[in-house]
Amino acid sequence: MGQASTESSLLAAVRTAIDTQHLFPDSGVVVVGVSGGPDSVSLLHLLKSLCGSAGPYARISLHVAHLDHGLRGEAGRADAAFVADLAAQWGLPCALGQEDVPALARKSHRSLEDAARQARYAFLRRVAANVGAERIAVAHQADDQVETLVMHWLRGSGLAGLAGMQPLEGDIIRPLLRVSRAEVLRYCEQRQLAYCEDASNQDRRFLRNRIRHDLLTVLEQYNPNLRETLLRNAAVLAEDDAYMQAQVAARWSDVIISETEHALEGDVSVYRRLPLALRRRVLLRAGLQASGGAAHLELRHLEAVDALLARASGAGVLHLPGGLRLRRIYERFRIYEWSTLEHPAESDQSSGTSGASTQRAAVPLAVPGEARLPHSRWLVRAHVLDKQTTPPPGYEQRGSREQWGYIDLDALEAYQPLHVRTRRAGDRFRGLGMPAAKKLQDVLVDAKVPRAERDALPLVCGADESILWVAGYRIADVLKLTQSTRRVLALELEAVP
Predict the structure, then answer these.
(1) pTM of this structure
(2) Which of 1, 270, 394, 493 has an alpha carbon within 20 to 30 A of 90's alpha carbon?
(3) pLDDT attached to residue 347
């Protein structure tokens, strides 16, 4: 009776989760991440019983996926072989992958845990794309949820973090999230399911393992029902979180004006008008979306971003977890995955050779008029001010990061026609107040122009290729305004979607 009861109750719990949480699509392929441990083996066995021609989800087929993280040498390869054999025995297709997670962690400046998680989900999504799967099933269970909740609490997560993992998050489904580790182990024992023992689960270098083996043991001395309490609180907070997510969805398109696979661009002024709670939620969602689910921003990160965006004006960049950057330029902000979108442009060679972006053709700049380089987010405008027009106060001191540059239009005649381009090898520039021309690379370094911006920074140049304005930073000294200036050319730099 005990064996049948455990099997039927666990199967019923998984089926209830699938139905009530709408975990499965109507038909198609579901990728199942299988590490070889008891959780994932039991999940695969349960789903195999429910799917296919003999189960209630006859229109769902399963595809096994396993990633060797490169952390355990021969033991990792043995796990991969075990999963491949298991899939073959059960008549299921299987995809195996391998990743050098220690190298990935060093390259991306992440912890081993974060790098392993990123590699795992990236691999599962590649498999899903290859087989046309809408959903990916992973084997997180209730004890994993408890450990996650404590981890988020220690790191200072907000409401979303304290609500924990959800049964359905985008393309990820967790059918076992209401099932305890003890129930999983009993199921494996009663069904005589073989599985792998991962020695790294005892490795206290990993925070999750220290929480599992050390911290929870201590906390349960104060509350023996701690696990049930945490799970109950998480369920309540999940309802609050769902309401807040709905509010974010209602305002999302007002704040976010451009979305691509690895980057989002937003309107600072609209962002600032939101209540603080919604501002933080917008940032959380933007970070997850730009990082493909890899970046979970903590409260300290959200506060730093909010402080940058809450300023009346200005520019700045923040380095965030998960390889993300957030860059503000006046009334636009951009959150993006650094390794994907920015890193190739960050290598300044001593020879002065710049990246491919510097090889773009020059774009003519009419006076008055505007110009924008292909694939650039920068627009340069030229405005003519007559002698009755007074430039904004302090224009003559402008030489650091500014939206405007003002030059003597009459002195400009010798340099017409103008064009806009990016930097090239050998560029030299004598900026306002400089005694002599210097390498443009040195000027940019002295002006503290972020390395990632240098290859994309627009330069307003004359017909002889002399640089007249390093957009946003400094005009050429030869074109500075003087007491005899009669007409002014105002150059404007604007970030556009």
Answers:
(1) 0.62
(2) 1
(3) 35
